[in-house]
Amino acid sequence: MSLVTSKQLLLDAQKGAYAIGAFNVENMEMVQAVAEAAEELHSPVIIQTTPGTIKYAYLEYFYANVKTAAKKCSVPVVLHLDHGNSFALAMRALRVGYTSIMIDGSHESMETNIALSKAVVAACHPSGISVEAELGKVGGKEDDWERGEENPYTDPQDAKVFVEATNVDSLAIAIGTAHGIYSGIPKLDLERLSQIRKMITVPLVLHGTSGIPDETVKECISRGICKVNYATDLRIAFSKGIHEILHKYPETIDPKKYNAQGREEVKQYVMSKIKVCKSDGKAK
């Protein structure tokens, strides 16, 4: 199947009270793992890359990998730019062939965030490419910069104004999650999520989900989350597989040997999270 955009998948998830898992990848093996997991569970899936990942290996490399994986799948696969940090990067991803774009102006003022997001929407929508934006600040470290500690939560009324002003297709909100590894069990503001859901109709996105208990993620989905992002735990899973092989067979010099185990660990992790999102069996 060819790559698809995320808009209809998220609207279907919203209608069906499930979510689409969005998984950050760092190399070919992780792309393979995510695609294989989705195919095996007959689930739509979103594969995404951050600016830091792109800096390491370029948009074109990841586009080629994910496009190849999608062609070998019978399920819908989206290639998404995660946390696009500039209009220029968003346009580069659009031109290369990414089928979903996030523009993250959450570190800017409300006015600048609106203007930036609106500009990306205006550029992407004529090509049928959906746009995700972020309002509020998901904590922790995202790529090469640390998010501030100022009031991080998304205001429900601001969310309404933002969506109406920008015409974005989905909105990432801040309710207490953070990027990276949590030092304890995070406490999410689930009531705020419900309030935001009442104010806007576009699909809502949960970032910083690695480390969030599965039952909490399920509760977020029941309150309106339609896209769930996982990143850090995929890195942990891949590294775990490599460490296992090199610890057991320290003389191994063939990268295919340990990368294959890393790939398998990621696949099993992704399959477990697809089931948490309840998107297994939902591919059309």
Write up what this structure looks like:
Strands 1-2-3-4-5-8-10-11 form an 8-stranded parallel β-barrel, surrounded by 9 helices. A 3-stranded mixed sheet has the order 7-6-9, with no helix packed on it. It is globular, with a radius of gyration of 18 Å. The protein has 284 residues and is α/β, with parallel strands linked by helices. Helix 3 (51-71) packs parallel to helix 4, helix 4 (87-96) packs parallel to helix 5 (110-124) and helix 9 packs antiparallel against helix 10 (255-277). The protein has 10 helices and 11 strands.
Any descriptors?
single chain, 284 residues, alpha/beta, 8-stranded parallel beta barrel, 3-stranded mixed sheet
Helix/strand layout:
Layout: H1 7-16, E1 20-24, H2 28-41, E2 45-49, H3 51-71, E3 77-84, H4 87-96, E4 100-103, H5 110-124, E5 130-135, E6 139-142, E7 145-146, H6 156-166, E8 170-173, E9 178-179, H7 190-199, E10 204-206, H8 214-222, E11 225-230, H9 232-248, H10 255-277
Parallel strand pairs: 1-2, 1-11, 2-3, 3-4, 4-5, 5-8, 6-9, 8-10, 10-11
Antiparallel strand pairs: 6-7
**Helical segment count:** 10
Sheet/helix structural class: alpha/beta
Order of helices and strands: HEHEHEHEHEEEHEEHEHEHH
Biggest β-sheet: count, sense, barrel?
8 strands, parallel, barrel
Could you give a quick summary of the protein structure above?
The strands form 2 sheets. The chain has an 8-stranded parallel barrel, surrounded by 9 helices. The chain contains 10 helices and 11 strands.
